[in-house]
Every structure is written in structure tokens, then in C-alpha cells.
Design brief:
The chain has no helices and seven strands. The chain is mainly β and about 120 residues long. A hairpin with a 4-residue loop joins β6 and β7.
Length: about 120
């Protein structure tokens, strides 16, 4: 029997077939305008395959606007460059990386992300 990711997103050994979702990483880059104003843009930092675990969605009100948000955990093969300031694109939806946890000794990463959608 193969070991798999359990409901908490932890693993003992991951079947590589479970990493079936293509995702794209985006790292922040600071661009300066001609006036010297700094704008943060996100540039592609590569594509990888991931296993996805959806969290429970929630609703909130921020700045007098209703929002819907959900935590999603992506598990990918180990990468040393992923930071909490990055974003992940999964099928056209951008997620903000909230935390990165190494699993095993440089085997995998559990990347906790947050998706927030304004609602009208």
C-alpha cells in the first residue's frame, strides 16, 4: 500500500501521481516609474505540479466590502526559492502564499495559500 497525503496535508511518502495539478509560481518584482514611484508586479518563477487540499471557505467584511476567502494548501516537490511573498496561479486563479513548510528532508513543500474574492 502506498502512503498518501492525509486530510491534514501531511505525508509519509507521496505518490508522484498525486502531483497532477499544474501551477505557476509568481515572485514579486519592484518596478520604478519615471517619477520614482515603486510598483510591485509579479513575474513568473516557473511551473510545477502540485497536489491540492481545499480549506473551508469563509465570508468577511473588509473596508465596507464583503469578501469571500478560502485557504488552499498545495503540496509540490521541494523548491528552495518559494517565499510567503509569492503568489500561485492555479487554472487562472491567483492565491497569495501565506506560509511554506518543508516536509521531510527537502522532499516536498506544503504551501498554505489564501484566495480572497471581493463580492458585490
Amino acid at each position: 500500500m502506498r502512503n498518501q497525503i492525509d486530510h491534514t496535508g501531511l505525508y509519509s511518502k507521496i505518490d508522484s501521481g498525486m502531483l497532477d495539478r499544474p501551477i505557476t509560481f509568481y515572485s514579486p518584482s519592484i518596478a520604478r516609474s519615471v517619477t520614482g514611484h515603486a510598483d510591485i508586479t509579479f513575474v513568473s518563477a516557473g511551473t510545477d505540479f502540485a497536489y491540492r487540499v481545499d480549506g473551508v471557505p469563509s465570508e468577511d467584511e473588509k473596508n465596507y466590502q464583503e469578501t469571500s476567502s478560502a485557504y488552499v494548501t498545495f503540496t509540490v516537490r521541494y523548491r528552495s526559492d518559494v517565499k510567503p511573498s509569492w503568489q500561485i496561479d492555479d487554472n487562472g486563479i491567483r492565491y497569495d502564499v501565506e506560509g511554506v513548510q518543508e516536509v521531510g528532508r527537502r522532499l516536498y513543500l506544503n504551501i498554505r495559500t489564501l484566495y480572497t474574492e471581493p463580492r458585490s
